[in-house]
Amino acid sequence: xxxxxxxxxxxxxxxxxxxxxxxxxxxxxxxxxxxxxxxxxxxxxxxxxxxxxxxxxxxxxxxxxxxxxxxxxxxxxxxxxxxxxxxxxxxxxxxxxxxxxxxxxxxxxxxxxxxxxxxxxxxxxxxxxxxxxxxxxxxxxxxxxxxxxxxxxxxxxxxxxxxxxxxxxxxxxxxxxxxxxxxxxxxxxxxxxxxxxxxxxxxxxxxxxxxxxxxxxxxxxxxxxxxxxxxxxxxxxxxxxxxxxxxxxxxxxxxxxxxxxxxxxxxxxxxxxxxxxxxxxxxxxxxxxxxxxxxxxxxxxxxxxxxxxxxxxxxxxxxxxxxxxxxxxxxxxxxxxxxxxxxxxxxxxxxxxxxxxxxxxxxxxxxxxxxxxxxxxxxxxxxxxxxxxxxxxxxxxxxxxxxxxxxxxxxxxxxxxxxxxxxxxxxxxxxxxxxxxxxxxxxxxxxxxxxxxxxxxxxxxxxxxxxxx
Length: 469
What we know:
By secondary structure, this protein is α/β, with parallel strands linked by helices. It has 4 domains: about 1-105, DnaA, N-terminal domain (GMP Synthetase, Chain A, domain 3); about 125-290, P-loop containing nucleotide triphosphate hydrolases (Rossmann fold), CATH 3.40.50.300; about 295-365, Helicase, Ruva Protein, domain 3, CATH 1.10.8.60; about 380-469, DnaA protein, C-terminal DNA-binding domain (Chromosomal Replication Initiator Protein Dnaa, Chain: A), CATH 1.10.1750. About 50% of the residues lie in helices and about 10% in strands. The protein contains 21 helices and 9 strands. The protein has helices at about 1-20, 20-25, 50-55, 60-70, 95-100, 145-155, 175-190, 200-210, 215-225, 240-255, 275-285, 295-310, 320-330, 335-350, 355-365, 380-390, 395, 405-420, 425-430, 435-450, 455-469, and strands spanning about 30-35, 40-45, 75-80, 105, 165-170, 195-200, 230, 260-265, 285-290. The protein has a 5-stranded parallel β-sheet with strand order 6-7-8-5-9, with helices on both faces. The radius of gyration is 29 Å and the shape is flat.
């Protein structure tokens, strides 16, 4: 055993020289030699996280370091050892090695086994096999986002990155996650690039778990080795340290020419919880909004969902007049459309009745919602107010205090507070970095004037109508 330990010490020295002190400390410092038998070396590590990533990314290096000491070695068996080892009673015969140790996973120089998504964040978040480009319905509101996502998915390793990061934002149920998962499926299908899909929540979980297991450096290195990093629901990214790590990862990937794709429910400038540096870097790429679903697009989505259902239920049919009714009345988002088809399918199959317009009207009545008001942006308010009062948008954001600028600026702040859900600090930041007390003063000022000044009241109502049209 002394000779084996001496060899193991030399192998560790080779590993340290090969990967560097920092990486060695993160990955290999807690790796132990269990034994050498014939052409196989048995090693163990304390966590599944370490085992998975050594298996996926350092197999060839570990094997080559052993072969430099023992050319006859052709296999590395890596296991996760128990935190507490069983104590063998003196009078009992020792149990066979196979009985005391979990089944070994073979680690060859060609190993590319993925990390388990159920246990490690770097295995990625779960993917829905239905969310591919083939099942994505393209319409006027999502054409640009779809084209940009296809461009990313069809890229090859070494190709110049056209837009980085690609940032897609839209409301709930408009297809953001579908596009991001489609990019991941398509990118991984060729096995040429490493494409990792993570929700913001999974990214946070992975970073915190790496800190707890003292493998943060390895976590960072592994993330920055990804060819295409796909992050969904960025608006949920919380915590200063996590945001800082995300910023460093984002910068490292972009600077290295790797692709980053991000989705959120609002544009980068509206992500108030994120650091200014992160917002600036996100805004520096291609920012694409996916708009609301038009009736024609809704009709196309419904037909696509019916076709998908028919693959498993060949006799399922939805008449054209029912499809037109659903497309006209269910306007909220794509998930409601899919839910409507699922209801019709269930009702038709369970009751053995054909789908009719009367049935559809009854089954989806709770999905028919009143038309939502137009989503108004602060930029729209600034543009309309500037045009109304014959000033420039830069005037509204400037520090000028002349009367012809102060009043329009106050009106714009008042409209921003009453027509959007933005907070006072956010409105102040979007008006040239002003304090929230300045915004509050402007809102109260215009409220008081509107109740007394009929002309100003009419002007404000006219501006509201223009913005809501």
